[in-house]
Structure formats: C-alpha cells, structure tokens
Design brief:
Layout lengths: L1 H6 L18 H9 L7 H7 L11 H22 L5 H12 L1 H10 L10 H5 L6 H19 L1 H11 L1 H5 L10 H11 L6 E8 L6 E8 L4 E7 L2 H18 L1
Antiparallel strand pairs: 1-2, 2-3
Helix pairs in contact: 3-8, 4-5, 4-8, 4-9, 6-8, 8-9, 11-12
C-alpha cells in the first residue's frame, strides 16, 4: 500500500479490499468492462499499466509482445478483407491502423490515462496525458491478455478495439504517409523541403526512445516528437506540421 501512496495521484479513487490492491478499484472494473475482458491475474493488468519510470517491473516487455501480436492480427485481418490488394498497399493500410495516433485514440476511448502508474517525475510532468505512454499501455494490455488467455482471446479484443479504424479503410485510397504528404505539400508551393534531425536518444536497445526535430525553414516552424523508432517520430513530426499548415 505504501507503493501506491507514493506513485499514484491522490485524487484517484482507490478502494483496497483485504489488502488485495487493484481488485476492487472501480476504475479498474470499468476498464475491464470496456475491453470486455476480465483478468484472472489482476497483477498482470497492473504491470501493463506501469510505466518504466516506476522501476523494473514495468510494462515494456508486455508492450513489446503486444506490439508484435497487434501487427500479426491486423495483417491477417487486412489480408482476409482485401484479397486482391498487393503487399505494398497492405503495408500502408497496416501502418495506418496500428500507428501511435490510433492507439492514443483507443486509450482515450477506454479512459486509460487515469489508471497509468507513473514514477514521481512523470507524474509531475503530466505523463498520464502523454499519448506515447498511453499508446504503449494499450499494447501492453494486449500482451497481458495474450499471456493469460492466448491468441484467440487477444485476437477478439484487437478486432473489437480496432474495428472502427479497420472499417474506415477504403481499398481505393492510397493512404500516403505523413512525410510524403508534407513533402508534396511543400513541393506544390515550391518551398524548401523539411529537415529531420535526431536530437536525442534515451535508453538502450529495444527500450530506446528517439526524439526527432523537424524544421520547415521557409515557414520558420519546427516541432519535436518522441517515439520508439526514428521513423515513427519523423511521421509524428510531419503529421503535426501538416495540421499547422492546414490551419494557416
């Protein structure tokens, strides 16, 4: 109980029952109802919601597992839905469905932010509102469901959570990535192409976090984004800048 008094915001509503933390927390029960899955081992769900800023028993390994399973399930679903579409287009469709933005939207749908377990530094900086942390937690939950109940259970969960985004796919849409869209937009107006710079790397190996800056020289505009791959961080930068340009 001492652990939770340190690392969880005081405004959250916790109900401890016979010392068995989390099992009787209303918000945890609501989360399991929202995803239509009841954990037998509630500690596995707790781990899925625990950020690495807390310590060693965090959700990074579960997130790694969930990310891999998500890719397999979505790839198989797209393969079955669109039997006449080639590999290149299927890859773009898959990237659209499993991107960080989609995971962030799903996290918002299931109201995940208030259940994230963060270290004091992340709490102070508002880490529960960071989309990247929320997205990782969604993937970690998928990994946890797979470990507890196997592939078919997590397959059902993924197809339920991602149904809206799978149904949005139009086989006639090229679904160009954001870097391509940004470049084409700038070329249309004969403006300088964006400059992407890796400005910082945190962590090592599969736990690395990359911070990328993108500069639009003509507009005197730049943004920074962080992700678990340089490619994803660049795409996030391009997406943010495209939205800014559209407002202008």
């Amino acid at each position: 109980m001492f652990f939770f008094n340190i690392f969880l915001p005081k405004h959250r509503n916790f109900e401890f029952y016979n010392g068995d933390y989390y099992k009787r927390i209303p918000a945890m029960e609501k989360l399991q109802k929202k995803i239509n899955y009841q954990f037998q081992n509630i500690d596995l769900l707790k781990q899925a919601l625990t950020h690495r800023s807390v310590g060693k028993n965090n959700n990074e390994r579960l997130e790694f597992l969930g990310d891999s399973i998500l890719g397999v399930v979505v790839a198989r679903e797209l393969y079955q839905r669109f039997p006449h579409i080639g590999e290149g287009k299927l890859s773009r469709f898959k990237s659209y469905v499993v991107r960080g933005q989609t995971l962030g939207l799903i996290a918002a749908d299931i109201k995940l932010s208030d259940l994230l377990i963060l270290g004091p530094g992340e709490l102070k900086s508002g880490g529960h509102n960071r989309k990247s942390i929320q997205a990782d937690a969604v993937e970690a939950i998928l990994g946890a469901v797979f470990l507890e109940s196997g592939f078919e259970a997590v397959n059902t969960l993924i197809l339920t959570l991602f149904k809206k985004y799978l149904d949005e796919i139009n086989p006639n849409d090229t679904l160009k990535d954001f870097k391509t869209k940004l470049q084409e937009h700038l070329q249309k107006f004969k403006q300088t192409l964006p400059q992407y710079t890796l400005i910082k790397t945190m962590g090592k190996d599969h736990n690395a976090l990359f911070i990328v800056r993108c500069l639009l020289q003509d507009q005197k505009m730049q943004v920074e984004q962080e992700a678990k791959s340089i490619k994803r961080a660049e795409q996030m930068c391009a997406e943010t800048l495209l939205k800014k340009l559209e407002k202008l």
